[in-house]
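Hi support team,

I've been running sequence recovery on a batch of backbones for a student project. Most finish fine, but this one hangs at about 90% for roughly twenty minutes before it completes. I'm not sure whether the input is malformed or the queue is just slow. I've pasted the structure tokens below so you can try to reproduce it. Let me know if you need the job ID as well.

Thanks,
M.K.
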């Protein structure tokens, strides 16, 4: 059996993501993922969290979330996601949040409602939107 053949593609992607996360944690002085911690080559570690791609697609791929202006401001859904992640991470750290949360943060001049969870100190964004008045 060739190396890695015992795992399917989804399992391999998950394991590779976890290995990148672990490497990022080891590389960070404080061992945290969020503002100030960046992976090699400038890639934000939040982009490598399991489920991040799905979150980005869910958050920015739906017009009902009203985040087109935020994406336009940052130039891409990924850049908008990392800005949103950093803004929420600052609030989560300041408030000592753990578990499920809902917060309102300012990103690109917009008040954005964000829902997610903090598990073992790692922030996960589930959804974000600008409420319709």
């Amino acid at each position: 059996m060739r190396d890695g053949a015992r795992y399917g593609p989804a399992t391999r992607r998950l394991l590779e993501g976890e290995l990148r996360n672990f490497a990022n944690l080891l590389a960070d002085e404080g061992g945290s993922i969020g503002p100030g911690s960046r992976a090699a080559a400038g890639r934000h570690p939040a982009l490598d969290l399991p489920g991040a791609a799905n979150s980005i697609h869910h958050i920015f791929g739906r017009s009902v979330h009203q985040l087109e202006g935020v994406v336009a401001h940052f130039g891409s859904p990924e850049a908008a996601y990392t800005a949103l992640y950093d803004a929420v991470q600052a609030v989560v750290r300041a408030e000592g949040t753990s578990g499920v949360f809902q917060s309102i943060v300012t990103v690109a001049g917009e008040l954005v409602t964000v829902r997610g969870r903090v598990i073992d100190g790692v922030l996960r964004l589930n959804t974000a939107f600008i409420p319709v008045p």
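--
Follow-up from support: It reproduced on our side and the slowdown came from queue contention, not your input. The radius of gyration is 16 Å. No action needed from you.
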